[in-house]
């Protein structure tokens, strides 16, 4: 029994080490930032040749919830370009080593600023338990670790998308509430003006009109 506990402890330590290595192997940047009107914001990432990358973005608040997005390689070649997109995802493989640039532009907007979220993933997550240098199949504990790891990644993705939807829905609800409040105030003012006008109009119907007569002497 003690040897089994020791083996289980070594297995759990190995699983933790592999998890740490997997977390360091792939890079991911998730940023939410404010993009003012008539503004442009660029980001830069150093990527090695042959690395698979994914850019995903979504406009959370502001205007028509759209933004311009542009992705360039180190030579300045445009890999991705979309105008006035609310959300999108683009996957590519780096053709060469260097600094890749992706920009978000709100230069077409004159009055409204935007809140933009993007997730830029560089590289793929390696398998939790690499198959090289293994002569045996995965143990039951290792298989359970793999299943839990994949389930947790899915949970994180779902939570991120639900938070974005909640933030976007809250922004739209607040904007609609503001418009309803202004419309109600406008209706109240119009109703008050019409009521006062009707009072003065009815009063003019019942007011006595005095006429003066001038006699001309003979």
UniProtKB/TrEMBL annotation:
Q: Does the keyword Acyltransferase apply?
A: no
Which region is the signal sequence? 1-28
Alphabetical list of PROSITE patterns matching this protein: GOLD
* GO BP, sorted A to Z: protein transport
**In this protein, which residues make up the domain named GOLD?**
40-122
Task: List UniProt keywords, sorted A-Z.
Answer: Cytoplasmic vesicle, Endoplasmic reticulum, Glycoprotein, Golgi apparatus, Membrane, Protein transport, Signal, Transmembrane, Transmembrane helix, Transport
The family this protein is said to belong to: Belongs to the EMP24/GP25L family.
This chain belongs to the protein called: Transmembrane emp24 domain-containing protein 7
Q: What is the lineage of its organism?
A: Eukaryota, Metazoa, Chordata, Craniata, Vertebrata
Q: Which gene is this protein's source?
A: Tmed7
């Amino acid at each position: 029994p003690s040897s089994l506990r020791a083996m289980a402890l070594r297995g759990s330590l190995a699983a933790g080490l592999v998890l740490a290595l997997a977390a360091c192997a792939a890079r991911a940047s998730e940023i939410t930032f404010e993009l003012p009107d008539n503004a442009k914001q660029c980001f830069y990432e150093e990527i090695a040749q042959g690395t698979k990358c994914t850019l995903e973005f979504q406009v959370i608040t502001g205007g028509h919830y759209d933004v311009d997005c542009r992705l360039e390689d180190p030579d300045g070649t445009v890999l991705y370009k979309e105008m006035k997109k609310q959300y999108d995802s683009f996957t590519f493989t780096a053709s060469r080593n260097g600094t890749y640039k992706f920009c978000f532009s709100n230069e077409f907007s004159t009055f409204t600023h935007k809140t933009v979220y993007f997730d830029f993933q560089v590289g793929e997550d390696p398998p939790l338990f690499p198959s090289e240098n293994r002569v045996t199949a995965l143990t039951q504990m290792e298989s359970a670790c793999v299943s839990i790891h994949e389930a947790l990644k899915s949970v994180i993705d779902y939570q991120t998308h639900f938070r974005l939807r909640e933030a976007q829905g809250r922004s739209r609800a607040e904007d609609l509430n503001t418009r309803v409040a202004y419309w109600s105030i406008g209706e109240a003012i119009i109703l008050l003006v019409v009521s006062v006008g009707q009072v003065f109009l009815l009063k003019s119907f019942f007011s006595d009109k005095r006429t003066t007569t001038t006699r001309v002497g003979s």
